[in-house]
Amino acid sequence: MSYNIGLSGLRSTNQALNVISQNIANVSTAGFKAARAEYAALYAGGEPGGVEVAQVSQDFSKDGSKEFTGRSLDLAISGQGFFMVKNAQGQTAYTRAGTFNKDASNFIVGAGGEKLQGYGVDANGALLTGVVTDLKISASNLAAKASTRLDFKANLRADAAVPATTPFDPADANSFNYSYTSSVYDSLGTEHTVTQYFVKTGANTWDSNYYVDGAATGVTQAVNFNTDGTLAAPTTPVVLNMTPAGADPIALDVSYTGTTQYAADFSASYDADGYSSGELAGVRVDDDGSVFAVFTNGKDLLQGKVALANFSNPNGLAKGDNTSWTATFSSGNAVIGDPGAGGLGTLTAGAYEGSNVDLTGELVNLMTAQRNYQANAKSISTADKMTQVLFSSW
Q1: Which residues form the Flagellar hook protein FlgE D2 domain (predicted)?
Q2: Does residue 318 surpass a pLDDT of 90?
Q3: Taking all residues of the chain, what is their mean pLDDT, rounded to a whole number?
């Protein structure tokens, strides 16, 4: 019986050595989770029967170190959750290895070609939540978009003097108080300038004169303020009709919402829609998993959103290739959600999660396993010598 007990110890220790060796071999593998062999004593009718490896568990509770690379599609999860990927056979796997790239078809793929899963967008760029699909980056250029609005916001100095020179002349700086130029675009993506010249006409009253590309539009808008410095008029947008050569006509709505008159220096800002055409320059992933295509004109378009999955029992997952796992009955069904929501971890772009193996600890475990192996071998050797003594006494 002692032979079998010692033999079970050798077998179990050999399994533990395999686990330790696997940990050490993957100390630099992205998304790898350290495993350990867990032993259980064997008894038969109350008599000792040796030992066995009851299970090999993995440490999903400890994050690996973040390896910062600066690559836009490298993603690291901090906390719970897994990336969802789909292989060529359509099978879904789960991984912590966030080293992603674009393939020849512009799908976001892992090191083994598995396609990253997430929420896609419709033809208008709206996110389709609830439908998980292959994430893909559009390779087409961004077409130009004509401007339709210009939201202008400024502070006109309350104690400014009425210009002594009249009438208003854009070439004479003494005939106006302030000027500000904004950029808008036509349907061909050509940039046009809209310059506003502000002329104070009296207490709390101003005139705004509009010029497009240096030419007068003939539009003058009275801008009036209340005694507390807030805007009194206009309360609706001023419409500028533009007819750029070779492009569609533009009806530009100029809004003054938020404009004030206080005894402070002149300041102004604007926000306009519309842009010139652009080529794909790169990809950006935000912390919430949103994936954007970035274009040379400074604009970006939403391409989708990375979705994460979690399980009630991650140790019930079945191990697969390429540092991935598959769902089983023991793991339970995947709970899918946005990064940072519902107990799921957060994302860090420009980095990937390294292995969580503690190399120093594994080397100590290796020495311990070696001693255990020697001790079990010694017990077999001792039992053999005792048997030899028994035989030699006959």
Answers
A1: 155-275
A2: yes
A3: 93
DSSP structural state of residue 24: H
The model's confidence at residue 342, banded by pLDDT at 50, 70 and 90, is confident
Q: Is 322 exposed, middle or buried (0-12, 13-18, 19+ CB in 10 A)?
A: middle
Residue 15 pLDDT exceeds 70: yes
3-state secondary structure (DSSP) of residue 280: strand
Contacts of 224 (CB under 8 A, 6+ apart): 204, 205, 206, 231, 232, 233
Sign of CA dihedral 43, 49, 55, 57: positive
Q: Where are the domains of the chain?
A: 2-61+356-392, 68-138+296-353, 149-272
Residue 340 is encoded by which pair of tokens? 């940072």
| Token pair in block for residue 80 | 């719970």
Is the separation of the CB atoms in 101 and 89 below 8 Å?
no
Percent helix, percent strand, percent coil in the chain, to nearest 5: 15, 45, 40
Specify the CATH architecture of the domain 149-272: Sandwich (2.60)
pLDDT in tens, 292-306: 999 999 899 999 999
pTM given for the model:
0.79
Name the β-bridge partners of 58.
35
Task: Count CA within 13 A, CB hemisphere, residue 133.
Answer: 15
Do the beta carbons of residue 303 and residue 138 sit within 8 Å? yes
- What residues have CB less than 8 Å from 9, skipping those under 6 apart? 50, 51, 372, 373, 375, 376, 379
**Is the confidence at residue 205, as pLDDT, over 80?**
yes
The DSSP symbol for 287 reads: T
**CA dist., res. 232 & res. 223, Å (int):** 8
* Length of the chain, in residues: 394
Distance CA(359)–CA(134), nearest Å, equals 36
Based on the number of CB atoms within 10 Å of its own CB, is 354 exposed (0-12), middle (13-18) or buried (19 or more)? buried
- Find out whether 163 and 172 touch, Cβ atoms under 8 Å: no
b or e along 185-222 (b: 16 or more beta carbons within 10 Å of the residue's beta carbon)? bbbebbebebbbbbbbeeebbbbbbbbbeeeeeeeebe
Contact 269, 154 (CB under 8 A): yes
Token digits of residue 107: 């799908």
